[in-house]
């Protein structure tokens, strides 16, 4: 705000309008014209316009930002007879404001001053300061520590279509990871749910297509539609080849046209938002369409893999198993859990490393100890590459790379025989950084400022030239102190001080009473009520000496900074290698720690169709029970081999059916993600797709009832599940009338058994379904055991062969505190219903329908309430105080009876 460049000429025209829209450029002052020009180029962004120590926003931008940030909307100057709405945020606090705007879905173009005012003046008295947009901040292109969650990836993704095929490309700007994957249209939703992009680029053409409407609508807040021309596959190829300086991309894999289009659009967008600065991207890695277990969005949500239904990390599977130490490790674990593998060899390679570290406690502890001293170099490096880094990012490199030599020794000393591939790979990738680390250690001082601009981060002793300049600067400061003593002595004013401020620079200050003692050589600069300020030629000379020494020192520090960043960039591949190795070691050691402390076992993973879990547990429920002193979790077996690949699980509500279903799905996910599993033993034939129909939340946002959601999800499963899938179905058909629901559940079981032929767990309270066991060869019946004790039901949480003979719904209702009258009445009704059903074979279900009308219970007359009757009879005005007292006793007596 203290920028002297006037934005708008003062305008005294009367009749202010509540102006907000942009005025025509010809009406503007030069500074205004500059603003309008930049704003026009970035119409879809809020323009953060740098003016001195503030970023200012004008016109509609100001109105929107003031509301979004809850800051004051003021006005600055007038334009065309109207006030110009304005708001501003201080530059030093801009990051926090930026983060709030981005979270609310805004994009922000950051416009900086590209020169000092003095330089502008040199070009002419009227010339305004040159400004330019240096960056466009969007949700997917953030790299600042303060804007990112250290333990989560933030992906920028692009979807493209070419030759009728679809592909996704995604990258983490702050780590450089870059992936491409072809996707089939039906699998797109699941792939997006896995990647969970912070921002998704799509060609406008696709946004308009009806078949993409619903899918993209769901990701609306993250969507950035771009002109379809930006998704040209040939341009994409050229862009990628140029970026990675290769003649042909074949070295990285063979990519389909849609993949090139998506990858190219992504890289293009990064260049656009970073205004030409190129981030350090790793070469694209191609993920085959079937390389990971496909898990649709609803299943991810319902199983609460990485966040709970309410959107928190705590309470999710990820948070229950996460023992990683570093941010990079946490991000990698999240990535692995979101994308379980399907190749047994790759899965076993991960498990080997976990096993190795689970067995070697000493090595694991030592490793984790080292990791605690390793700051996040992935993100530090990304910031440095985008010219957004500071001295502390260099320090992160110094500290973390400084640990690699010790780590390599540690791993090298470990028992060599049968060392897992992953460990050997990590040992190699940690790399050799001694010389660079040594240089960083010598260069960086003990206290590091957050920003580079003011210097003060290069250590003494690093450069003789810098030391000399600093000496000169400090020496001159000492000379100022000496000068003050001398002037005080010479003038006889003991209280004389030499001070400094930004306007006057150095000056001599005395109180007005002493002013006349300062005569020869003292030039008055400023007279105030309580102070008089002077300068002298001598002080002026000293000042310029100090200033020039300080300026030269800072300039030199900045040069060293650039040199160090330059060296870091030339070593970027080695640094990235070390970062990846550290993250992998962190994840392996964390999973080993988890396995040991939580008694997890190594699953045998192969490409059979087995699914045999002994003593399986639910990791989140188990932890919750422990934390809440809710007792021990009862482990349960689950064996879906031939002959019983479809389990029909009956039992009352609250018995643990849904926990059992979910725990088996989670065990499959954990195993294929490369983790040990909460069980005594487990053998898992790779699952290619996991389907679930659990939970029953209304999807009102999409205008669907609970039952509709249930049917849509069930339909997807029955249409898509193949023999390698794992399906868990909880309480199908509950959202409709009993016979409707039972019929749907019945037909679903038959279809799963005969057509899908996949491994499945089917929980239901329709115990009638168990009749199917006789007919369906691969169906087996299991039930949650309960014990009836003194008229109450005790849940044992044990899965046992057999079928429940009843639902115990009324018992649960009693437990939940329904009024005893209602519970009693329900028992009567049930007795009637059960009698009516006796002898009625299940095959004649439809004939039983009239039963409901025959037994429809009559509403009972409520018994009169004596308390209410007595109260009703009172006539307050006719009561004496004594009567009233007696009445109170009577009423009290009635409440007891
Ligand atoms: P259902 O699906 O049969 O209604 P849930 O699976 O929701 O039942 O389980 C109800 C509660 O019972 C859970 O919240 C948990 O506290 C407890 N529970 C479930 N399974 C077990 C188990 N194996 N051991 C101990 N407690 C369990």
Which term fits the overall shape?
A: globular
Quick one: how many beta strands? 27
Cα-to-Cα separation, first versus last residue: 78 Å
Strand order of the largest sheet: 13-23-24-25-21-26-27
Please, what is the average pLDDT?
86
Number of helices: 30
Uncertain ranges: 1-20, 838-860
Helix content: 40-55%
Structural class, by secondary structure, is: alpha/beta
Biggest sheet details: 7 strands, mixed
Rg for CA atoms: 37 Å
Quaternary state, please? single chain
- Beta-strand content estimate: 15-25%
Bound molecules: adenosine-5'-diphosphate
Please describe the topology of this protein.
Layout: H1 30-41, E1 46-51, E2 54-58, H2 59-69, E3 74-79, E4 82-90, H3 94-103, E5 108-113, H4 117-122, E6 131-137, E7 156-162, E8 165-171, E9 178-183, H5 188-195, E10 199-203, H6 204-207, H7 210-218, E11 223-226, H8 233-243, H9 257-273, E12 285-286, E13 294-295, H10 297-303, H11 317-321, H12 327-338, H13 344-359, H14 361-371, H15 377-385, H16 391-413, H17 421-429, H18 434-443, H19 464-491, E14 497-501, E15 505-510, E16 523-527, E17 532-535, H20 537-570, H21 572-598, E18 604-606, E19 611-616, H22 619-627, E20 636-639, E21 646-650, H23 657-673, E22 681-685, E23 689-693, H24 706-720, E24 726-730, H25 738-756, E25 759-764, E26 779-789, E27 792-801, H26 809-815, H27 820-837, H28 850-854, H29 866-873, H30 881-896
Helix pairs in contact: 8-9, 12-21, 13-21, 14-16, 14-21, 15-16, 16-17, 16-18, 17-21, 19-20, 24-25, 26-27
Bound molecules: adenosine-5'-diphosphate.
Adenosine-5'-diphosphate is lined by residues 621, 625, 633-634, 636, 651, 653-659, 797.
